[in-house]
Amino acid sequence: MIIKPSTAMRNDYTSISELCKAKHEPIFLTKNGEGDLVVMSIETYRLREEMLDLREKLLSAEANRLAGAKTYSLDEVSERLKEAIHATV
User: Fold this and answer.
1) How many CB atoms lie within 10 A of CB 19?
2) pLDDT band per the 50, 70, 90 thresholds, residue 88
3) Number of C-beta neighbours around residue 34 at 10 A
4) How far, in Å, CA of 1 to CA of 3, rounded?
5) Structural domain of residue 6, as residue ranges?
6) For 12, which DSSP code?
7) pLDDT tens digits, 8-34
8) pLDDT, position 89
């Protein structure tokens, strides 16, 4: 975990920006010794959002499975994919 005082953002934005991009993780900013903000690069934010979206989809799929939704075996999925590929060729 990277923690910096908020003055670092005001006084040296470039080094904070470079650190975010180099470390690929959020930087926690403090104000008067207390947690205040979290900053991260756009790329790190995008990847984090994609991961959260994937987790949400997986949880939804698992909830549907537990509720009795139709499921497919690996062999069934493989066969359907082969059929789809051969149908478009």
Assistant:
1) 17
2) confident
3) 6
4) 6
5) 2-40
6) -
7) 999 999 999 999 999 999 999 999 999
8) 66
- Same domain, yes or no: 6 and 32: yes
Note whether 36 and 49 are same-domain residues.
Answer: no
Split into its structural domains, the chain has a count of 2
CB atoms within 10 A of CB 15: 12
Tens-digit pLDDT profile for residues 68-87: 999 999 999 999 999 999 98
On whether the CB atoms of residues 50 and 42 are closer than 8 A, the answer is no
Q: Which amino acid is at 89?
A: V
List, in sequence order, the alpha helices (H) in the chain.
Answer: 6-11, 13-23, 42-66, 74-88
Q: Are 4 and 16 in contact (CB under 8 A)?
A: yes
